Amino acid sequence: MLSTKAATALTQEAAAIGRLHLRDLLGDAARSRALVHELGDLRVDLSRHKVRAETIELLLALAAETGLAGKMEAMFAGDLVNRSEGRAVVHMAQRAAPRIEGDGYAALAAFADDVRDSDICDVINIGIGGSDLGPAMVSAALASHGDGPRIHYVSNVDPAHLHDVLAGCAPDSTLFIVTSKTFTTAETMRNAALARDWAGGRGPGMVAVTAAPQVARDWGVDSSRVFDFDEGVGGRYSLWSVVGLPVMIGIGADRFARMLNGAAAMDSHFQAAPFAENLPVLMGLMRVWNRNFLGHAAHGIMPYDQRLRLLPAWAQQLEMESNGKSVSAEGAPLGHATTPVIWGTAGTGCQHSFFQALHQGTDIVPLDILLPLRPTGLHLDGDWAASHAVLAANALAQAEALAVGSPNDAEPHRHFAGDRPSSVISWEASTPYAIGRLLALYEHVTIVSGFLWGVNSFDQWGVELGKVMARRVEAVLAGTATPDGFSATASDLLDRIAAPADRKG
Amino acid sequence: MLSTKAATALTQEAAAIGRLHLRDLLGDAARSRALVHELGDLRVDLSRHKVRAETIELLLALAAETGLAGKMEAMFAGDLVNRSEGRAVVHMAQRAAPRIEGDGYAALAAFADDVRDSDICDVINIGIGGSDLGPAMVSAALASHGDGPRIHYVSNVDPAHLHDVLAGCAPDSTLFIVTSKTFTTAETMRNAALARDWAGGRGPGMVAVTAAPQVARDWGVDSSRVFDFDEGVGGRYSLWSVVGLPVMIGIGADRFARMLNGAAAMDSHFQAAPFAENLPVLMGLMRVWNRNFLGHAAHGIMPYDQRLRLLPAWAQQLEMESNGKSVSAEGAPLGHATTPVIWGTAGTGCQHSFFQALHQGTDIVPLDILLPLRPTGLHLDGDWAASHAVLAANALAQAEALAVGSPNDAEPHRHFAGDRPSSVISWEASTPYAIGRLLALYEHVTIVSGFLWGVNSFDQWGVELGKVMARRVEAVLAGTATPDGFSATASDLLDRIAAPADRKG
User: Fold this and answer.
1) Could you tell me the residue ranges of all domains in chain B?
2) How far is CA B231 from CA A269, B35, B73, B329, in A?
3) Could you give the CA distance from residue B247 to residue B139 in angstroms, rounded to a whole number?
4) Chain B, window 86-125: residues with a beta carbon less than 8 angstroms from a chain A beta carbon
5) Measured between CB atoms, does A435 come within 8 Å of chain B?
6) Given pLDDT bands bounded at 50, 70 and 90, which one contains residue A225?
């Protein structure tokens, strides 16, 4: 990527723009308004990035030189762009009209309806990674639309996770959804077995969501309760598939379909809009600009919406698992940085925590500041709207303060240098449609930046070594292997685990 | 800091050690075991950092040249080391024996007991930043020791936060604790007013925790229910004070005191232990080594303990708010980087999310891997212990895999370069004592690295500009000011907030 002509020009552009302050760039209203892009009520404001018209031109040239359009076409055409696994990218088909109108979806919706109409009080999804983060995040995001049973998510092999959830449930009224692509995921199958023991054959029992239906049936799930999905659906892109079942049980099939509609609208936009107006393309280019030309190693995602508090953790998997690679899709070493660290928490809490470092620290961290303009789902009496206006004021105030800073004060500790970039992403209200559209935006931003970086955004070989190592450690703990090959201090810790000391603090 | 002789030598050391792989360093058992340090059952294993004996010597020389011992002495002696606010550092006094044996503590414990013995079902703490993150984290960490009413935490001015908690509570049996040092914090007072309206004079009402008792009384809290603390206690260091009241109500005063005892034990160790064996000093030196000499811009904290899931968010405030500064304690511009981005989530979930990037991404992120060796508080029937062994195996396996990597494979996407550092921090079990000791460790690591960086770790002027800006935006939204001085796109967004469009996605 960095060997392109555009990259050379962008390196010069970065040096040139380094001499301009965002305060001055924002003074040009025409420039700033040209950096706002919309899709329906979704508004992406890129005016607080260190860019001007020439920068965008050069970034679009970079996209052209690195073949972004061709890569997108190949993906949409169903080519096997996930080369290391020989797979096409199929998650967008999960939210396309033909699927929502098909028999499989109707069967899923009917099952969800049955659960919603039953005496089931609690639904516990047992899954980890992509089988957890996406659905858990959406269940929280759309909590005010939830009118079904309580939905819980258990992922960790730490037994405290399942234990503490079960402590609040009763076997007679608790349904378990075991979600695992292979139905062999260590954490998930261990928790599923503990859950089955706890239920002891009472109550509504177990449902399986998997790409390995025979394995689920062999494990003991009734055929009528095995919902399978295409093996080509990657975990972190899977919430649109049957992996979304717990969400659907919580909010109902109609609202779930509206979420899919919102995502599909973003898909159409991504496929059809000219790059100069294409939200995922422009945001993906900003990721690359900030990372590779301005040198920012981290990127923050701050939702000013308490119910979107799990979005940063979901986006963290999405972007870092997709683009946390050091070799190209063809297997060649890369000469440039790939994903930044993606992190964040909900606003306004973040302002009273680490925003000190974002305003006055030595490093610059570009932010996505997310804001629904209206509140949703506040049915109790009270003047809730006034607080929402304060929320909105804070989101905008932070973006302005980070960019503009303060004049030089007499006291250095009160000085704000400003010149710190952010995107402000807003929409009318956090409806299922708006949330679906927002999540698809993040998926496509990830794909665009991955294409620019030249990586395969759809595999995740980097999780394998840890699994192999964990099995070896487990064998040592079980006494079926010796700690050969582990470091001395690892071996010492294994001894301590195996033979508890009498130490007391 | 970088102008010291030790820093020059450390720069050379970083280049020299860059030629050694952690795989090789770990092969030297004597070196590795010398990098393990203990306090009671707390074990801090630094052997997987890119250091050798010479490195530690040089880092201790850096501490000497930058006057760490003198700064610590001044802090312990009660000097006004928080210069910009003219304050001493007093939070350690909150967990010292004289306080726990004093009348104030007895009165607080008596109140907590009364609540625990009453018909109150729900306690809602309303506070933000340091009045939220610490107590919320401890309530989750010690959930299995909780035998009082349910404890909730509401921080965000987003009305959905309070609303969704109230939706599960009843006014007759809900107590509110309003926690704010000044009793003027915008988010907190707004939520407190909404809560008071909701309660409508019914039920157990409001308690105030504040350093401004008169303001709380003027707001309407009965004198007998105002618990005040010293203004010198900084928010992010305050959970040991009366700010811990919701924790105490949840677990009882005896367990709370044991948590204070654990923290006090760490204080004694920090003050008395030689630097070469001093856990906070050594961990603080690792922060500086990784940040300023090896150039790592982010630091991850991964607790392998689901109940410690909020610890990263607490540590994020602690370290980033304390040390996210660009000027020295004396107000001079710094010539070196300060706090990295601090972030993380609980293991094993993290392994199925962003660990791909930690293993195979282009950037190296040093980690703290935290592990209690035994499970606690699993009272339901079931074979929980076996899962905990798998949890422990995974924590250790990740540390080894990150450090050692894999041999060169034929396929580049399956290759793990290794050489990625981590600390493994373990203890017997997550008791109140162990948690108090662990949290004090993090506090002191922050103080040590802050002293090395030369910043004032006890002020937070960087949050002020955002507050001023927010009030200005609120005035525009209220129609009492014009948007002069805001950028064009900010002004456009304000128009949209003020006059909802008919846009539908």
Assistant:
1) 5-84+260-456, 96-251, 466-498
2) 54, 39, 22, 20
3) 5
4) none
5) no
6) very high
Contact partners, residue A375, CB within 8 Å, separation at least 6:
A384, A385, A388, A429, B158, B159, B160
pLDDT digits (tens, 9 = 90+) for A138-176: 999 999 999 999 999 999 999 999 999 999 999 999 999
Vertex B376 angle, CA B372 and B378, to 5°: 140
A132 close to B (CB below 8 A): yes
SS3 A295: coil
pTM for this structure?
0.97
* pLDDT confidence tier of residue A504, bands split at 50, 70 and 90: very low
Q: How confident is the model at residue B407 (pLDDT cuts 50, 70, 90)?
A: confident
Cis-peptide, bond into residue A480, ω within 30° of zero: no
Q: Is B200 left (phi over 0), alpha (psi -120 to 50) or beta?
A: left
DSSP codes joined into one string, B66-90? TTHHHHHHHHHTT---BGGGTB---
Amino acid (one-letter) located at A103:
D
The tokens describing B364, both together, are: 């190296």
Q: Give the Cα separation of B447 and B74 in Å (integer).
A: 13
Name the 3-class secondary structure at A38.
Answer: strand
Whether residue A197 and residue B382 make contact (CB cut-off 8 A), yes or no, is: yes
Task: Give B502's pLDDT tier (boundaries 50, 70, 90).
Answer: low
What DSSP character marks residue A329? T
Which tens digit of pLDDT belongs to each residue from A284-325? 999 999 999 999 999 999 999 999 999 999 999 999 999 999
Cis peptide before B348 (omega within 30 of 0): yes
Answer whether A433 sits within 8 Å of B32, measured CB to CB.
no
Which tokens in the block code for residue B138? 């401890």
Q: What span, in angstroms and rounded, lies between the C-alpha atoms of B45 and B425?
A: 6
Shortest Cα distance, chain B CAs vs residue A65, angstroms: 23
H or E element at residue A471: helix A464-477
Domain B5-84+260-456 identical in fold to domain B96-251: yes
Token representation of residue B459: 């002020």
Q: Taking CA atoms, what residue in A is nearest to B406?
A: A465
CA triplet B340, B346, B347: central angle to 5 degrees?
A: 110
Q: How far apart are CA A127 and CA B349, in angstroms?
A: 10
A128–B352: do the CB atoms touch at under 8 Å? yes
| Amino acid letter, A386 | A
The per-residue pLDDT for B503 is 46
Catalytic residue among A321, A325, A443, A444: A321
| Domain B5-84+260-456 CATH superfamily | Glucose-6-phosphate isomerase like protein; domain 1 (3.40.50.10490)
What's the burial of B101, exposed, middle or buried (CB within 10 Å: 0-12/13-18/19+)?
A: exposed
How do residues B270-328 score in pLDDT, each as one tens digit? Answer: 999 999 999 999 999 999 999 999 999 999 999 999 999 999 999 999 999 999 999 99
Q: Choose the CATH number for A96-251 among 3.30.479.20, 3.40.50.20, 3.10.20.340, 3.40.50.10490.
A: 3.40.50.10490
- A477 vs B contacts (CB less than 8 Å): 389, 392-393
Is A389's Cβ below 8 Å from some Cβ in B? yes
Q: Which residue, chain included where needed, has tokens 């010291």? A: B4
What Cα–Cα distance (Å) separates residue B418 from each residue in A368, B20, B400?
31, 12, 9
Specify whether A352 is catalytic.
yes
One DSSP character per residue, A124-193 reads EEE--GGGTHHHHHHHHHTGGG--SSEEEEE--SSHHHHHHHHTT--GGGEEEEEE-SSS--HHHHHHHH
Tell me the pLDDT band of B499, cut-offs 50, 70 and 90.
confident
- Residues B429 and B304: their CA atoms lie apart, in Å, by 12
Q: Which residues of A touch B477 (CB under 8 A)?
A: 389, 392-393
